[in-house]
Every structure is written in C-alpha cells, then in structure tokens.
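Hi F.,

I've been meaning to write this up properly since the lab meeting, where we talked about keeping a consistent format for the predictions we share between groups. The idea is simple: the sequence comes first, exactly as it goes in, then the structure tokens exactly as they come out, then a line or two of notes. No screenshots and no reformatting. I'm using this chain as the first example so we have something concrete to point to.
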Amino acid sequence: MTDPQRAKPRTRKTTRPAARIRIGIGGWTYEPWRGRFYPGDLTQKRELEYASRQLTSIEINGTFYGTQRATSFEKWHDETPDDFVFSLKAPRFATHRRVLAEAGDSIERFFSSGVLALKDKLGPINWQFAPTKQFDAEDFDGFLRLLPQQIDGRTIRHAVEVRHESFAHPEFIALAREHEVAVVIAGDSDYPQIADVTAPFVYARIMGTVEQESLGYSKQALDAWAERAKQWATGARPEDLRSVEPATREPAPCDVFLYVISGYKANNPRAAMALIERVDKT
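Output, unedited:
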C-alpha cells in the first residue's frame, strides 16, 4: 500500500526510552495542507497514510461532533504504521451538558461505536469541556466515575480539557489524581494553564503557531516545548508552566502526547515535525 515516494517514513530509533513522546496534529484533512505539507499530487484518500509516517500521533476531532463508523476506525488502523497512536476527542454530547453525572448513556454509546477497532493504536480520550463550564466538585467526581478504566481487557486512558479558571483548584487536582485522569495542558493560549501531572501520562495541546514563522514557532519556542516534553517523559516537572499545587510525588516517567492545535493551522504539521526532530536528537 505504501509508495516510498509518497510517504517516506522518518528514521525511528531502535532503542526506546522508558516513556514514549508522541507528537502530532489535530485531524489530517485540511485543504491548506495540500501542496504545503502533503505533496501536491498526493490523492486525498492517502493523506492519513502520508501524515502518519511524518508524525507519531494524531488527535481525531471528528468524534467530538458525531459518531464515526466502526469501519472508519478499522480503516484508520490499517492505514497507519504499527507504532502509531490516535487520540480521540470524546463526543460533546457527553461533556456539553448541565449535569455531567448524567452522561452515562453518551459515554457508553461512544465506546460501543467502534473505537476499540483501533486496537493498540487507541491512545487517550480527550474529554473537552466548554469554556463556560465551571468546576463543581460533586458533579465532576460523578462524571469521572463514569469513565471506564478498562473495556474488554484494554486499558482506557482519559484526559479532561477544562477551560474555565474555576478548575485551577486543589480539589479538582485531587479528583483527577484519584481517578488517574490527565488534565490537558493548554499551551500558548488564553485558556487557563494547569500543568499538574495527575496521571501516568501527560497530554498537552499547544496553540501558538503563527504565519510569520516558517515552522509555526520560533526556534526558541520549539526548543522550549521539546525540552518540556523530554522533562515530562523522565518524570520531571517543567518549572516555567503554571501548576495549581507544588510537586509532591516522586518523579516517575510519563508517556507524553503533545498536539499542535489551532493557531496558524497551515503551519501546524511543520511545527509538529520540528518538535519530533528535536525530541529524537536525544
């Protein structure tokens, strides 16, 4: 299926660290990427095949807006390399509601829709909340208790993307740690930054790419994000990011999922590839 002239894979290291750093973008279908990230003569149906050989992960955002077909998850699994991983945005029907603890049916429908067809390529689920959603400890605890830790013997990893300042609260951090749910770290955006590590993995979404930089970010900014990813992977905590509480746990290696989202979207694949290159140098 793979045409070497179309989707030449990056050289991957033969030795792996204790934790993996995966870096990618949101989605893979975006017209301005054609002729810029994708070769001009690449057919649209081969874009995922190409992107998955330049990046190490992709966050699927179509699952946020509606149910995808099980056959689509099977197809995405088969078109990507063995060590590729997808993160999925959970359906808004579960997160954009007044009472979160009543989201059980939506959560069950999501996991029965075919997402497990991704098999070992199923990464974390990102539960994104509206910017107006405020922290209510009892309701949020009820919601977190609905998230399955395992399905058919497969561990399911969850991350919550909260975007209201009221979540910058020790009680929220305690709840996330109790349920081993990651708090999505917002980078270069107007959303509150909560960089507390609350799960065995880190999930970051950086949103500051600009048109003026050919790689989306300046060299200094790319170096900084690559260094933060490496620190997380070793269990260290970047001191230049805002956290709610001081570090209290012994450092432990964490898998890292970092996505270049929003900003000047046309440059996002270049930024992600530049970050991968920096991380792979170590």
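Notes:
Residues 21-280 form a domain with the TIM Barrel fold (CATH 3.20.20.410).
DSSP finds nine helices and eleven strands in the chain.

If this format works for you, I'll send the rest the same way.

G.
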